[in-house]
Amino acid sequence: xxxxxxLRFRLKDIVPDxxxxxxxxxxxxxxxxxxxxxxxxxxxxxxxEATLDYDHRLRxxxxxxxxxxxxxxxxxxxxxxxxxxxxxxxxxxxxxxKLDPIxxxxxxxNKGERIxxxxxxxxxxCVVDMFSCVGQFALHVAKRNEVDVIAIEINPxxxxxxxxxxxxxxxEHKVSAVLGDCRVVxxxxxxxxxxxxxxxxxxxxxxxxxxxxxxxxxxxxxxxxTSDKSLQESITSITRTCKERGFVSDIEVRKIKNxxxxxxxxxxxxxxSLK
Length: 275
Ligand SMILES: C[S@@+](CC[C@H](N)C(=O)[O-])C[C@H]1O[C@@H](n2cnc3c(N)ncnc32)[C@H](O)[C@@H]1O
Hints:
By secondary structure, this protein is α/β, with parallel strands linked by helices. It folds into two domains: 3-86, CATH 3.30.300.110; 109-274, Vaccinia Virus protein VP39 (Rossmann fold), CATH 3.40.50. It has helices at residues 3-10, 44-54, 111-120, 136-144, 156-168, 182-185, 206-212, 231-244; strands spanning 26-28, 31-34, 60-69, 74-82, 88-92, 95-99, 126-129, 148-153, 175-179, 193-196, 217-227, 247-260, 263-274. The strands form three sheets. A seven-stranded mixed beta sheet has the order 9-8-7-10-11-13-12, sandwiched between helices. It has a four-stranded mixed beta sheet with strand order 1-2-3-4. The chain has a two-stranded antiparallel sheet with strand order 5-6. Residues 71-73, 105, 107, 110, 131, 133, 136-137, 152-155, 158, 181-183, 197-198 line the site of S-adenosylmethionine.
């Protein structure tokens, strides 16, 4: 039975028929993350208990209480059923991520890009992940390739999970974790490839990414939440920043997902070489 039908049946004596129930939920390890409309919030614990019965692999159900905030992209969730210990292990294509999904962001919608990125990388490369979080890109890339990865993260809580995940996946010989602001702590002239998995005003970090590339250039994958109207402006600005640093750039744009009305999560694949 589908989730919504299951909820309707289970909650028929509690939730009025006219209240729209959620069609699904996002699973990270043993934790279900559910979005409820404002009318349903007062029934959140009933929805949570029903969700635990719907999928017996779950141990906790949390509902979203607000937008993801700040440079650390901290999500806002509240546990409504099951265990309050929401630290879990999420496994994706053989890579294990230990994390607390109600305290650090882990986007299900980026899974294809994480796996796809691990296939683009070539043996022998040095890859710098400037916004590593718990290792979403860094671990996939290192698991599949003979490469060196430098994973930078500013949030100490996400960094601790990153360090643990490097150990859990036995990737200590390939991945080194760096705690700090990538604009300050990035290494200089070492990378063949750079991953910039951060959506907000990402262009401000591009000069630092260019300084991180080896002198002859390389490839930068710059993620950005971009409106249709501002796409050309972004391409012009990337081209200009590369030029100011003495590089020519060849840019391809890919869409990852819808981000908000009129705004898409895009990746700018920027191939950078000397003029
Ligand atoms: C939304 S998460 C994305 C994680 C992963 N890159 C992905 O795309 O799935 C962005 C991460 O970048 C980190 N971050 C933000 N600003 C940073 C900075 N200046 N230097 C290093 N990390 C930063 C945040 O703490 C957060 O963990």
